Each structure stands twice: as structure tokens, then as C-alpha cells.
């Protein structure tokens, strides 16, 4: 299969090229030249085997085709259980059982497994440059740690990520370098972008990115929706509808694509925090990106959802059809707090602030009858509540035990190098051996 840019000006690329490049040369996002036809799928015995079957058409004819099964085994080596919630016919798809306890582990591990195979036998290692406000960098660093022929340089704004997030970035060592930048996230992102556009530098140090628009992260995210929905249908004979907490639309876009491939998913509803660019659009307004505002669900603090371009492509740019197909609702911080406290008080359930936006939106759909009582719905639980303990613990009045994989990371000593908020400082670091 070949891949083209959402902006169509770039030449078609094969899968390996699209994964290695990240962004298309014209600044657009890679999408399949043609979506594979919808087909009847079956849940495999494991998440890895479902992923292997689902992703096959995208790998057909590519250098990575023979590697797909191995990549899936390596990336999907932890579960994504679909569990009942206390309220009838409601479920939660737990996507936080990976090394950094957030759904981004799936995409980051799949990308690392793909890139390490593409780089095999090439002399110089590839250096991944990531700017992070917390979660992405941690998932990427953990996924690439000890991968042969790959290095990672993570830039984060010093003092502006949580202590646990900073620890996760700095505790790996080896092929992972953490730079704590004396500046903002925007400074970090600008520095990373400049490096990726610096031809002179790239001639000496091959560089790539690992941000959420990469196909190598997007495609594998279809797998957990497929495995959950197919298993659920086999057990209950019914489709599963989803509410997905949304920032850059990467996770939700994967669900939409999985449905187009024949996965028995019903409605897909988008929950956002107070950054309401998507709800405003789906309620009939123009698509109007704005600067993001800070919220309790900070991994969704996005004012210009990067995958929106892909969603529009899938609907042929037809805004009316898009608005017909999706519901999106925003949840403010006070309501996030209220939802976390109440679900714990009434049901003993503990949700992270991101997941709580989706739980709240599902409650609203149930209350209005928009989600009928006999329909089966699930929320995507994107992070473990222990990652956001400073928000969650005061609301529920007890400690949230840290999952063992994350606890392992937190036990390691951490070290980050200071870095001035200037491109020259990053460039020097990248040129050091
Ligand atoms: C990144 C992230 C999100 C948002 O996912 P998108 O793919 O950007 O929509 C939601 N929750 C958590 C915990 C995240 O880390």
C-alpha cells in the first residue's frame, strides 16, 4: 500500500518511508492512498494477533511486511482489558497497562519496533528528537530505551512538568538523553523543529521525530479498539459505542479508521476538556484553532488538534457529513473534579482527569437518552490515575497505588541535563558523540 499527504502535493510514499519521515514533505499528514475495504474480522487470541490481522493490508508489499508479526509481538506485550463499570452496560477500556501507564505506550512501542527494524544494518544510529509537555516524551523514551541503532533526545520545560513526569524522562539513561530546558514547552517545540529542518546538521546526525501525527503511532492504535469490539461482539452479539477523551485526535482517529475497516464499533463520541475547538466545530461553528488553555486533563490541552486534517480527509472534506457523524462535548475542570469525586464515592471507581471527561460525557448521553439504556458503551481510559495523583488523591481522600511498571521506573535514579532555551544549545548537544 502507498500513502499520500492530506495536502496531496507530495509524492506517494511506501509505508517504511512514511513511518521514517513522520510528516509528509509538504507539511501534510500521511494517509492511505486508498482505505482498505471493510471486511469481516475476527478477534485473535491476543491483542498482538488481532493487531497483526488488522494491520496486514497497510503493510502489504512493504519491506516491513514480513516483520509485522514480530513488531506486533514486541509492541503489544501488555493487555488492554475491557472491564464493566458499575453502571449498567457501561465499560472501560483500560489503555494504561504499559511501561508509562498511558495509551501512548502502544503507539510509541510500535514506532520503536518499526524504526529499529528499518535502521538495522545502517551504520549511524537515528536520533529521535522529541519536545514534550510530559506524557509523549515519557512513552517515547521508555519505548526506545535500549533499542539498537536508535537514540532519543527529549526536551522538556524545566519545572513545568510534574515531578513524576520529569523522573520518567530522566531515569532511563543509556541511549536516552533528557534535556531540561530553561523555557516553555513552545521553546522546546521550536528548538526541536529547527533541528529537524537543519540540513547541515542532518548530514552529520540523522534525525527523526516521533510525534503523534506519525503513522507508526496512529495505525497500531486501531488494534485495541478492534480487539475490544470484536471480543465484545463475540461475547454479547452487540456493537460497542465509545466515548474517547480527545486532544490531538490521534486516539479517536484510530477508532474511526478501525470502524471503516469493519470493526464492529457503533458511535464514536469525542470528549474534550475546556479546550473546545472540536465541540464548537461539531456544533456548527467554523474550525477555528486557538491557543490552548491549561486544564486538569493537561495531556489534552490542545488548541489546534493535529489529526483533524486526517478526519476531514476521511470524510472527503464534507463538513456537513462530519458534523452529522460525530458528537463532541467539552468538560470544564470543576466538572472533571466532581466526576472523579462522585464516581469514587458512589462506585469506588478511580479515574484520571482525562478519562473523567469521557465518563462525564457518557453520563450526559445516558441521562438525555441519546445513549439508550440497552446500548453498550465504553470509555477509553487513557492514563492510570496514579500518574495524576496530585489531582486525584485529594478528591478521593486516599492514595492511589502506583502500577508496578511505573513503580519500577520511579525507583531508578534520574538525571536530566540543563539546556538553554536556544537552538544553538540543542545543536551542540546533538553534535556531541
Ligand atoms: C495524549 C493523551 C490524550 C489525548 O490523546 P490524543 O490522541 O491527543 O487525542 C488523552 N489522555 C491522555 C492521558 C493522554 O496522554
UniProtKB/TrEMBL annotation:
GO biological process, one term: threonine biosynthetic process
Reaction catalysed by this enzyme: O-phospho-L-homoserine + H2O = L-threonine + phosphate
PTM annotation (N6-(pyridoxal phosphate)lysine): residues: 104
GO cellular component: cytoplasm
A GO term, aspect molecular function: pyridoxal phosphate binding
Superkingdom, natural source: Bacteria
The protein's annotated pathway: Amino-acid biosynthesis; L-threonine biosynthesis; L-threonine from L-aspartate: step 5/5
Threonine synthase N-terminal domain ranges (all copies): 3-76
Family annotation (InterPro entries): Ser/Thr_deHydtase_PyrdxlP-BS (IPR000634), Thr_synth_N (IPR029144), Thr_synth_N_sf (IPR037158), Thr_synthase-like (IPR004450), TrpB-like_PALP (IPR001926), TrpB-like_PALP_sf (IPR036052)
UniProt entry keywords in alphabetical sequence: Amino-acid biosynthesis, Pyridoxal phosphate, Threonine biosynthesis
CC cofactor: pyridoxal 5'-phosphate
Residue ranges of every copy of the Tryptophan synthase beta chain-like PALP domain listed in the record: 94-377
Stored Pfam families: PALP, Thr_synth_N
EC id: 4.2.3.1
PANTHER family: THREONINE SYNTHASE-LIKE 1
Family: Belongs to the threonine synthase family.
Official protein name in the record: Threonine synthase
Amino acid at each position: 500500500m502507498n500513502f499520500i499527504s492530506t495536502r496531496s502535493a507530495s509524492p506517494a510514499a511506501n509505508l517504511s518511508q512514511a513511518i521514517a519521515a513522520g510528516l509528509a514533505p509538504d507539511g501534510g499528514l500521511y494517509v492511505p492512498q486508498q482505505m482498505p475495504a471493510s471486511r469481516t474480522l475476527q478477534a485473535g487470541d491476543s491483542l498482538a494477533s488481532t493487531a497483526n490481522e488488522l494491520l496486514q493490508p497497510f503493510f502489504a508489499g512493504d519491506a516491513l511486511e514480513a516483520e509485522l508479526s514480530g513488531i506486533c509481538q514486541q509492541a503489544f506485550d501488555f493487555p488492554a482489558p475491557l472491564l464493566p463499570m458499575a453502571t449498567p452496560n457501561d465499560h472501560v477500556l483500560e489503555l494504561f497497562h504499559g511501561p508509562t501507564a498511558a495509551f501512548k505506550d502502544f503507539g510509541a512501542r510500535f514506532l520503536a519496533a518499526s524504526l529499529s527494524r528499518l535502521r538495522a544494518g545502517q551504520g549511524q544510529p537515528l536520533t529521535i528528537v522529541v519536545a514534550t509537555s510530559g506524557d509523549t516524551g515519557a512513552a517515547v523514551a521508555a519505548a526506545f530505551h535500549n533499542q539498537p541503532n536508535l537514540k532519543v533526545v527529549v526536551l522538556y520545560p524545566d519545572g513545568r512538568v510534574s515531578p513524576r513526569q520529569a523522573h520518567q524522562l530522566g531515569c532511563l539513561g543509556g541511549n536516552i538523553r533528557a534535556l531540561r530546558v530553561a523555557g516553555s514547552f513552545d521553546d522546546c517545540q521550536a528548538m526541536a523543529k529547527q533541528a529537524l529542518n537543519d540540513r547541515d546538521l542532518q548530514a552529520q546526525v540523522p534525525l527523526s521525530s516521533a510525534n503523534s501525527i506519525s503513522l507508526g503511532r496512529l495505525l497500531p492504535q486501531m488494534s485495541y479498539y478492534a480487539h475490544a469490539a470484536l471480543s465484545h461482539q463475540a461475547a454479547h452479539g452487540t456493537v460497542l459505542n465509545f466515548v474517547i477523551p480527545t486532544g490531538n485526535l490521534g486516539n479517536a482517529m484510530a477508532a474511526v479508521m478501525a470502524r471503516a475497516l469493519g470493526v464492529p464499533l457503533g458511535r464514536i463520541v469525542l470528549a474534550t476538556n475546556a479546550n473546545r475547538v472540536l465541540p464548537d466545530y461539531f456544533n456548527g461553528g467554523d474550525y477555528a484553532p486557538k491557543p490552548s488553555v491549561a486544564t486538569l486533563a493537561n495531556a489534552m490541552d490542545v488548541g489546534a488538534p493535529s489529526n483533524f486534517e486526517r478526519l476531514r480527509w476521511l470524510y472527503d472534506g464534507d463538513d456537513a457529513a462530519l458534523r452529522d457523524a460525530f458528537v463532541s462535548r467539552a468538560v470544564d475542570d470543576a466538572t472533571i473534579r466532581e466526576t472523579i469525586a462522585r464516581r469514587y464515592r458512589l462506585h469506588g471507581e478511580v479515574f484520571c482527569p482525562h478519562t473523567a471527561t469521557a465518563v462525564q460525557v457518557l453520563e450526559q448521553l445516558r441521562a438525555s437518552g441519546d445513549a439508550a439504556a440497552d446500548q453498550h458503551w465504553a470509555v477509553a481510559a487513557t492514563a492510570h490515575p496514579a500518574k495524576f495523583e496530585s489531582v486525584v488523591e485529594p478528591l478521593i481522600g486516599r492514595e492511589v497505588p502506583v502500577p508496578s511498571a511505573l513503580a519500577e521506573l520511579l525507583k531508578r535514579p534520574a538525571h536530566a541535563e540543563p539546556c538553554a532555551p536556544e537552538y544553538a544549545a540543542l545543536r551542540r548537544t546533538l553534535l556531541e558523540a
